[in-house]
From TrEMBL:
Protein name: Isochorismatase domain-containing protein 1
Top-level taxon of origin: Eukaryota
Alphabetical list of InterPro entries matching this protein: Isochorismatase-like_dom, Isochorismatase-like_sf, Isochorismatase_domain
Pfam family of the protein (one): Isochorismatase
Family annotation (CDD domains): YcaC_related (cd01012)
Species, as recorded: Asarcornis scutulata
Family the entry assigns: Belongs to the isochorismatase family.
Limits of the Isochorismatase-like domain: 109-257
Length: 292
C-alpha cells in the first residue's frame, strides 16, 4: 500500500515493528531520536514538540519535510507518510504569522477552574473577589452549556473547592499534585468534546498552576484566555509578571465581562438577559485589574 512504504529517505528498513531511528532537525538544531515503526505525521509533530517545545512558536504555521535521497534535498512530507526506515525530517516555520484572534463560541470553548480551595483563602490576595467572579463565570457556563473542568491541588492537605463555588454540572472535578491542570484525565475529557478550540482559565495561583496550565495548553494548539479578575496569587508581583509573560506568548489576558459578552455575541441571544444579570451583579472594583 502507498501509505505503508516510505518515500525515499535513505537508510536501512527496520525489521517488523519496534522503533525506527529518525533525525529531527529544527532551525540550527539536529537531534537523533526514535519513533515507533509506522509512526505518521501526528507522532512526528509530538516528537518535535518534545524535543524543541521551548523553541517552537505555537502561533506560527509549520510544514514537516522529509530528506529525499533521490533529490538530495528536503521535500514536503508526502500525504499518508508512515515511518518505515531510518530517515531525516525537519520542521520549517512559514513566514506568515498566525494571528490569535481570540474569538469565542460556546460550542468550541471549555472553562478551566483551577484550585479555588479553602486553604488558599487567607493567603491569596483578593481571594473573595476572584471567588465571586469565578462563581459568575461558572453560572454563565451552565447557562450557555459550556463544559467545566475543575482541579483541586492536593485536597487532602489544602481542602476542597470553596463552598461559594457551585460545581453543579462540572464535567470533571479532579484532585492533583502536578501544578498544571493538563493531566491525562483532563486530556481525555478534552478529547471527548468535539471541536474544542478555546480554554477560558481562571483560579490560583497565577504564576504557578495557571501559568503552567496555560503554557501546556497552547503547546497542544489550544487558544487560552486567562480571566484577570478571576485569577490571583499570594504576591501581586508574581501575578503581574506571570500575566505579562503569558501575554507575550500569545495567551489572551481578558476579563470576565468580556468573556461572557463575547460568548453571547448578540443582544438577541436567548440567554443574553440572564448573562446580563450576572454581569450587573459584579463585585466592586477590587484593584485586581489595576495590577495586570
Amino acid at each position: 500500500a502507498a501509505e505503508a512504504a516510505a518515500p525515499p529517505g535513505g537508510g536501512c528498513p527496520a525489521a517488523g515493528g519496534g522503533s525506527v531511528p529518525v533525525l529531527f532537525c529544527f532551525s540550527v538544531f539536529a537531534r537523533p531520536s526514535t519513533v515507533p515503526h509506522g509512526a505518521g505525521y501526528e507522532l512526528l509533530i509530538q516528537k518535535f514538540l518534545s524535543l524543541y517545545g521551548d523553541q517552537i512558536d505555537m502561533h506560527r504555521k509549520f510544514v514537516v519535510q522529509l530528506f529525499a535521497e533521490e533529490w538530495s534535498q528536503y521535500i514536503d512530507l508526502p500525504k499518508g507518510f508512515l515511518v518505515s526506515e531510518r530517515c531525516k525530517v525537519r520542521l520549517v516555520p512559514l513566514q506568515i504569522q498566525m494571528t490569535t484572534l481570540g474569538n469565542l463560541t460556546p460550542s468550541s470553548t471549555v472553562f478551566f477552574c483551577c484550585d479555588m480551595q479553602e486553604r488558599f483563602r487567607p493567603a491569596i490576595k483578593y481571594f473573595g473577589d476572584i471567588i465571586s467572579v469565578g462563581q459568575r463565570l461558572l453560572q454563565g457556563a451552565r447557562l450557555l452549556g459550556i463544559p467545566v473542568i475543575v482541579t483541586e491541588q492536593y485536597p487532602k492537605g489544602l481542602g476542597s473547592t470553596v463552598q461559594e463555588i457551585d460545581l453543579t454540572g462540572a464535567k470533571l472535578v479532579l484532585p492533583k499534585t502536578k501544578f498544571s491542570m493538563v493531566l491525562p484525565e483532563v486530556e481525555a475529557a478534552l478529547a471527548e468534546i468535539p471541536g474544542v478550540r478555546s480554554v477560558v482559565l481562571f483560579g490560583v495561583e497565577t504564576h504557578v498552576c495557571i501559568q503552567q496550565t496555560a503554557l501546556e495548553l497552547i503547546g497542544r494548539g489550544l487558544e487560552v484566555h486567562i480571566v484577570a479578575d478571576a485569577t490571583s496569587s499570594r504576591s501581586m508581583m508574581d501575578r503581574m509578571f506571570a500575566l505579562e509573560r503569558l501575554a507575550r506568548t500569545g495567551i489572551i489576558v481578558t476579563t470576565s465581562e468580556a468573556i461572557l459578552l463575547q460568548l453571547v455575541a448578540d443582544k438577541e441571544h436567548p440567554k443574553f438577559k440572564e448573562i446580563q444579570n450576572l454581569i450587573k451583579a459584579s463585585a466592586p472594583e477590587s484593584g485586581l485589574l489595576s495590577k495586570v
